[in-house]
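Internal tracking record. Fields below are filled automatically when a chain is submitted to the structure queue. Please do not edit lines marked as system-generated. If the sequence contains nonstandard residues, flag them in the REMARKS field before resubmitting.
Queue: standard
Priority: normal
Entity type: single polypeptide chain
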Amino acid sequence: MKTLLLSILFLFYIGNITFVKAEQNSISDSLTCTQKLNKAKKVYDAGNITEVDALLKTCLENGFTKEEKMQALRLIILSSLFQDEHIVAEKNLLSLLKEDPEYALNPAVDPAEFYELYNSYRTLPVLNIGLIAGINTTSIQEKQTYSIGSSLDKKPTYKSRIGYHGGIVGDILLYRKFQVHTGAIWNLKNYTYTNTFLYNDATTLTSEENLMWIDVPLALKYNIGKGKLKIFLTAGITYSLLLNSTSTLSRQNIDESNAAKESSLSFKSIRNPTTTSALVGLGVRYKVGYGYIFLDGRYNFGLLNVANPENRFQTENGDNLFYYGYVSSDFNINNMAISVGYMKSIYKPKKIRKLGEDK
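SYSTEM-GENERATED OUTPUT FOLLOWS
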């Protein structure tokens, strides 16, 4: 009799527990996703971390707002870490970073275990790509003077003129604060050449040359600072491809006799098709959304002769440059540019593999 009574009490107890659990599950299923998130927070704070995942997983695919989803993923990550379920924590961290690649931990509330997991992942943008535009000024460094006059004549003078540029630029993540900078920039570089020659400076020649290039920088960029505002340094080379070169030539005599009529000629054939420059730069950028606006200043030191010695005295159209008294000297082009632009950041979060670690 006693055994039967104990069996009945045991079955009643089990049934009651089952009923309570079923009732709790029924109540849980009737909750909205927002209510489930709020309940999961209370459950987590109470230390019942094993219940967090079950409360939230049904709403992760569809049901949460973006902000709610990130809060839910954070709770699942924390509860997984405290249960030593690191694979589950890593999976949900990837989901969190895909939802918001710039998610930032809060040192006031996030534990050291979360920081350790977070820092084991690549969270920096793998690529920044955008547009650049600005103005530039060109200075000429003459290497060897050529002229129709004598060696006693004055050397030619060169005056800078404002040019313009614009194009596409990109920064590829190399390591932490280091990036590889490149791009394709259309660049109009202008200058004025003046030369006086013959007896008593009897005639003055003026050439206003406009050179159109495609510049391809290849440089190392280093970023300094934290937060939204950063400074960056750039150093490398610029490879330049000449698209076109034209010059407006005129020659004026002192007595205005036998002056050469002003004319525009192609100078492309008397210029080398490519050149290379050493690049240094300094800039500042300010974060806006998943990208940043920037102000960039750079200087290109010409390394190679721009003049084509094989076509020094005649253009591709057969124009006789002696009519104007123009002979191209050997020279390098230096260029200073000020630019503004915007870059969009592209993220691809992944686990950072340690040396010798299996994939």
